[in-house]
UniProtKB/TrEMBL annotation:
SMART domains for this protein: Dak2
UniProt keyword annotations, A-Z: ATP-binding, Glycerol metabolism, Kinase, Nucleotide-binding, Transferase
Annotated family: Belongs to the dihydroxyacetone kinase (DAK) family.
Pfam family for this entry, one: Dak1
Domain DhaK: 11-352
Source organism, top-level taxon: Eukaryota
Entry keyword Ubl conjugation: no
GO MF annotations, alphabetized: kinase activity
Catalytic activity: D-glyceraldehyde + ATP = D-glyceraldehyde 3-phosphate + ADP + H(+); dihydroxyacetone + ATP = dihydroxyacetone phosphate + ADP + H(+)
Function: Catalyzes both the phosphorylation of dihydroxyacetone and of glyceraldehyde.
Protein name per Swiss-Prot or TrEMBL: Dihydroxyacetone kinase
Record-annotated DhaL domain positions: 388-589
Amino acid sequence: MAPQHKHLLNNASTLVVDSLKGLVNLNPNIKLDEGQRVIYTPPSQSRVALLSGGGSGHEPAHAGFVGPGLLDAAVCGNIFASPNVAQIRRGVELVTGEKGALIVVMNYTGDALHFGLAAEQYRASGKPGDVRVLLVQDDVAVSREQGTIVGRRGLAGTILVYKIASALSDSGADLDSVEDVAKYVTSRIGTIGIGLDHCHVPGTKAGDSHLDENQLELGMGIHNEAGTHKLDLPTVSELVDSMLNKITNTNDPERSYIPFKNDGSDEVVLLVNNLGAISELEIGGITGESVKWLQNKSIKVRRVLSGTYMTSLNMPGFSLSLLLLPSKSESSTYSSSQILEYLDAPASAPGWSWSSGKEPGVIGEKVEEAATQKHAAKEADLAPTDSGEFISAIQRSCKALIAAEPELTEQDQIAGDGDAGLTLEAGAKAILKAIDSGKIKGQNVIEDIGVIAEVVEEDMGGTSGALYSIFFAGLGKALRDQSTSGENKTTLKVWSKASEEALTTLYKYTRARPPSRTLVDPLEAFIASLPSKGLSGAADDAHAAADKTKELVAKAGRGAYVNQEDLKKREVPDPGAWGIWRIVDGLRGFEA
């Protein structure tokens, strides 16, 4: 059984935009920023805006859920690829008002970094309204050991978070309240998926199936990842039993994520989700078996939602999600009736399937963009102690990275995917270009650091670009804060404090911590030593930390997927860590 590889389209490269135009034709109440691929509704000052997004290919998620009672905006990337920060920032600016915005996205590295960076940039801009990010990770197929660093994947349960948080926002609640209910619901959702085969991405070569005719894969994600187990094709009742057991079982310490009591008092919302290519006939049978299983286990089913909510293109598979409602015996801010009230609240969006609002029965053209108000950020000025040396230090670091490209590439061909040297070289060349063109002037470090953050995000791309850009965005905000507190020169003390705060910002969006065989190892060593040892001494400590990565087991990054013993034998340092060392080594001589 090979995945379906025939598609109906004009051109694979225009498919996402073509689809979004069709969605706007279907629903004239929504608008499209075609250039940034943002679907949105006109902003409302009366509610906390709710945004989501991610790679395309999960339709109707996420754009199909933009409408009253659900999302205010969805930002769409290429198929299975996170949108970039410029797209996300545009979406945030289009719908965020004084009450702020909550971004709800699934826990994938690219989405976490890019949406997080966009939120940080908005917050650093001085515009009104706070913006926060919530990562949903409801996959129970990922064990605690597997998810130690990256956490669990986000799956279809994310839709329930949208619906409930949006209903509370519609009631006039503030950002703290909307974020709180979203976090609560997220902590109570478990999802698991299966696939009869993988899907096929338009524009790519057709592949062969890795499953036999009578096999399926349990623990499927939504990006063509392999599942956790291959099983012989069972009956629906046997399959549902296996899946729901994994969500409700509290005896497996590696996968017991939801606090079921399993004593007859549990109440749930069931979501049956078609991953793209299961017939409605089969989905009906799956829904019936799921309700029956829960009732036989004395788990009260308060609501059933069934349909196509979040796909993996044309994957022949489905997922089951359970939302455990608050029990009367537990101490909770929310009651079961409140959560159900939010879930049952009216919603109008093409992707929102009909639901009864009752317990299950007993079996016997491009739209013109909305005008957005511009808010100028508060001016802040912070001058380097020596403008010429400040620029020279940046140039030295960039030239050091460019010169190091061959060694970084060689390291990454062994320890990663081979692009680290070229990625860092591209960012360094872009910064030098920004200096030559006068974008980086050396007069106001806040402005210059902001330019660097934008340049590396745009020209480096990928995970490295996002990590560097988040750090520099955090650095710029920290420098701005010190400027508004009275500082007017970038002394060593100012740089040290700003760097510490920038690292804290970066740590909001990556779980990597030293020793992890990643760029954070030398970065943290450098920042920790900077106040006491100065730039040169801190650079020496960064070198030691980068060199130490030769001996470490990778806990995060692409190196985590490479044979660890082979890496140790070949004594290859982490290329990302080595890149940090080359940068700070180039800074030597600039002490303030």
